[in-house]
Specification:
The protein is mainly β and 144 residues long. The chain has one domain (4-141): Nucleic acid-binding proteins (OB fold (Dihydrolipoamide Acetyltransferase, E2P)). Helices cover 12% and strands 40% of the residues. It has two helices and six strands. It has helices at 55-64, 106-112; strands at 4-10, 15-18, 25-34, 46-54, 70-83, 89-102. The chain has a five-stranded mixed barrel. A hairpin with a 6-residue loop joins β2 and β3.
Amino acid sequence: MNKVILMGRLTRDPEVRYTQTNNTLVASFALAVNRRFTRQGEERQADFINIVAWSKLGEFCSKYFKKGQQVGIIGRLQTRTWDDDQGQKHYITEVIAEEAYFADSKREAEAGGANTFDATFGTMPNPVAGGSDFEISSGDDLPF
């Protein structure tokens, strides 16, 4: 199984490009992910992990993700190699995003003026406003 779950802050705004063969959108960015433990007397360490998001998810990330924002990414780890113009081989490991979520607190998102979206590229439902298919008015309506 190849599954990666990360939460971190964007180190830069997503960079968008399109493939040459079929003009598919590709967004790439890096996440600064704090390490879980620190040694006594040292500052917290972070790993900088490259993320690649394709097509609609890439469009979503490029439109709504900004530098410094905390996000959650679920995806898979992938490695690739290529030779540069001088014939030197390069290796890269990156996460191919399959899902992307905002992870900032609601207060931080409101301060930044961002809307709350999920990885289905739409507005999150607001249970206070009603309109939920799973609304229960009283305890008597519970099926158990």
